[in-house]
Amino acid sequence: MNNMEVLKYEIKGLVLTKKFFYINLVTMCFTYYVLSSLVIGGFSGTAPFSKLSYSNFLALINPILLVMLVFITMTVFSEKERLVRKIIFSTPISQSKYYMIKGISTLTATLLIAAVQVIFSFAFYGYLFGFYSYSDFILPILLFLFPPIILILGLSFILGRLNDKILYLIIPLVFVMGMLNISQPVWFDLCSNNFLCYYPLRLAASGYSADALPYIMPMDYVVSRILFVITGLISFALACGIKGSQFSRILHKE
Length: 254
Fold this sequence. Notes:
Order of helices and strands: HHHHHHHHHH
Helix content: over 70%
Largest sheet: none
Radius of gyration: 20 Å
Number of helices: 10
Distance between the termini: 8 Å
Shape: globular
Structural class: mainly alpha
Number of domains: 1
Strand content: under 5%
């Protein structure tokens, strides 16, 4: 069995389970609550289907997506998996390969959960507002959804390898950071909720009308998201003990 087949097996083992179904169900219920209660009225005077409103939607569901990501990561470092790992490491498989496969399967499962929420939001917009220009939401998804997922994946793996008990602390920390709107630099604004809370004021101070806010992301915010991705990838690589080109070699090695 080559590495791609092992990866497919791991992904199936994660997503074709009752646990994954219930995770999706809970997340969808939260997504529906956010859409029907917090997003339906629009954001800062913009339409509910504006880019700013959709960015706000993504910021609001980020906490639960990241919590689910940590939950899935915890299974990698559970006592049951630790016993399995001892058996696996007695076979010709390196720790780098093992953790890389686990990480990619965890990321895939998380992105599937996120994709379900995005598709659900598209259906919501289409049914309620007759809005189908979903391409408008590509940039918000790239900026608001992916970077925190990559960051928390990397940090969860490296901290999980140090001490799996630390992961229990990440869950409330991530959730609180995503729920509290306090003034803080964008570099520490994990879910972008704080950035969005004060962003309309920054636009208004720049002379833009409150009822016609443009979708212009400041450079410091964009750079912070890029740093999130870079930090997450580096953390994941360190957790795997992988150097540079080993990623592609591990995936394609028979």
